[in-house]
Amino acid sequence: MPSRRRELARSSESNDSGFSEMLTIEEYAARKDKYRVVAHGLPLAYPIIKTPPERNLHSLIRPSYATCANVYLLTTRDDNHALWQIAARSVHALILRSGASSFNLRYPLQVEISNPDLSYHDISWCLRPDLMLITLFNEKRSEILQIVKAELSNVASAVCFHDRIRYSDRNTTGSVGQPTVIVYCRPNVPAKFQTAEERLACLFRDITAEVHIELLPGVVTNSFNI
């Protein structure tokens, strides 16, 4: 199943009929996180490199699909996101009217509103040394790869078994990660990701261990390559 915060934010639970359409992995991930909203387009994908506005980011990042923006970030503890995009667009328009063009910004201006307690920002840890869990993943590996190849042909770059933990809990003593099947998908390639995620989740519905499924943007070359 998806992580709890992702599950709460699923567009399908908001009767979004477009959630099952052909989307890029960036669009799919953004639609599943209702607690990161931007004025226009999509939020920047993690990991995010933060630097002073005048720095040339292309000297820091190599992938051709990386995105750069000048982001005005507003954080909130509010859990009602209904008006966030309207607010983000209003702030964006206000900044432009105030003469942002005179700053000669190197990258596009973006306004983001997010709730860091509810938005999705997990990181990977090595899978715990749990023999039962490792055996389970080994038993399911063939079926997982069959589904990925059938549903995400030419999109998926790798399948990994990780423990996932909230970024904010990474230094917390006693934090335990969530066993997760991660499918990294190449950016900018449309696919029906919801179908793939649901089929993968079905593989683990009748087992005792709680295993999450995550479809994320990324190109990985040192795992179970697709």
Could you characterize what this model shows?
Helix content is 26%, strand content 20%. Helix 5 (193-202) links the parallel strand 6 and strand 7. The radius of gyration is 19 Å and the shape is elongated. The protein has helices spanning 4-9, 25-31, 84-97, 131-151, 193-202, and strands at 36-38, 70-75, 109-114, 122-125, 156-166, 178-185, 212-217, 224-225. It folds into 2 domains: 34-119, no CATH class; 122-225, GMP Synthetase, Chain A, domain 3 (2-Layer Sandwich), CATH 3.30.300. The protein is an alpha/beta fold.
CATH architecture of the largest domain: 2-Layer Sandwich
The SSE string, one letter per element, is: HHEEHEEHEEHEE
The counted number of beta strands is: 8
Main sheet properties = 5 strands, mixed
Q: What is the level 1 CATH name of the largest domain? A: Alpha Beta
| Regions with little confidence, pLDDT below 50 for 5+ residues | 1-6, 8-15
Span between N and C termini?
Answer: 22 Å
- What is the 3D shape? elongated
- The CATH topology annotation of the largest domain reads as GMP Synthetase, Chain A, domain 3
Based on helices, strands and strand pairing, what is the structural class? alpha/beta
**Structural domain count:** 2
Q: How many helix segments?
A: 5
Beta fraction of the residues?
A: 15-25%
Q: What is the mean pLDDT?
A: 84
Please give the share of residues in helix: 25-40%
Task: State Rg.
Answer: 19 Å
